[in-house]
Amino acid sequence: MVSRRNKTIASLSLFLAVWAWNASAAAVKGETAGVDVGALSSPQIEEQLQNCSLVQALNAHKVASSPSGSSLTSKIFAFLFPGSPAVNALLATLYISGPPNFLLALCPPNIDPSSLSVMVAFAVGGLLGDTLFHLLPEIFLGEDEHDKVKFVMVEPNKNLLLGVAIMVGFVTFVAMDKSLRIATGGEGGHDHSHGHVHEKTEPIATTTGTELNGSKDSVRARKPAAKASTPSDTPREPEKEINPSVKLGGYLNLIADFTHNITDGLAMSSSFYASPTIGATTTVAVFFHEIPHEVGDFALLIQSGFSKRAAMGAQFVTALGALLGTCIGIAIQELGGNSASEGLEGPGLFGTSLRWGDMLLPFTAGTFLYVGTVAVIPELLETGPEKGKELRKTITQFAAMFTGAGIMLA
Fold this sequence. Notes:
The chain is mainly α. It has a domain at 116-145 and 154-196 and 240-409. Helices cover 66% and strands 0% of the residues. The chain contains 14 helices and no strands. α6 runs parallel beside α14 (387-409) and α7 packs antiparallel against α9. The longest helix has 31 residues, at 244-274. The radius of gyration is 31 Å and the shape is elongated. It is a multi-pass membrane protein. Residues 1-25 form the signal peptide.
């Protein structure tokens, strides 16, 4: 049986627990007295939570259990992106647009885009890795911080709006690709991997003299015709008639590439305003995607009748789309704000804490999902008749894809 002394101790412990609970509740009530809880922004709620003794104890435990250390990657990112989110976004745009375009000067005009399949697979791994490992967790949960624990507040319609923004980004690229295919008569869209580009050219036969009838006369005429060929005539041999639809496809591809680069700029601005780490990883993913992308576009323009210099100039003009997209994204973030911005009052979109700036990152994730899957995977699935060669090629592509994804985990 329980002794009277133990009963007394148990009752006293229960009384003290209830008293402590009421005291803490009264303290919290006193701190929030006269404050409209519904009007608090996400940063204000987070600040109130960080003042809680339990949260502070959790923060101390987190710091003690996982001591921080600056890795080589973080030092490199800090060196490349030393400024504010806007400055870092502009620097990232310069990084992803400049080097890939300068590399075109080293590309031969007759480069075969299908030879870039391994590079394309590497870029796919980087894009999907950045989307799945960084962008989507950041969109729905936020980024982890070393010195504090964070809490996610579930709001009605918030996740729904974020999902809608992802779908809008995906469907935007579907519509753009479909429009390009319709404009070119169904001969192909803006393929981000730029695998095999087929030209439909009509062969034009030319003769060096009058047409000869009869097999004997034809045989006799071959040698004089060959002798009549002089070095001054040789430059005319590569000239061939370009199908008008191929020319149109080249110009429409420039428009699509310009639009695509605008979304790259939006990705730079939205990711750096989310966090420096997200911005840096997104920059790396887009950079490795841009190399085969730019080379593929360059080859397509050459096949559309552009000279090498004209193709490089056109690619440089389309690269300005990334700068335009970055500036648009910065303007949206600065003027529209995001849920982490200070000084914003009133409810956000559809009664949630979301602002217009918060919708750019999920839009970017939607475009990356399209580019990394629908626009590129079909090219990687193309196989030839030689089974052994295709098997080795497939293993190499998968290794490149996993390497690209692994870099996003570093």
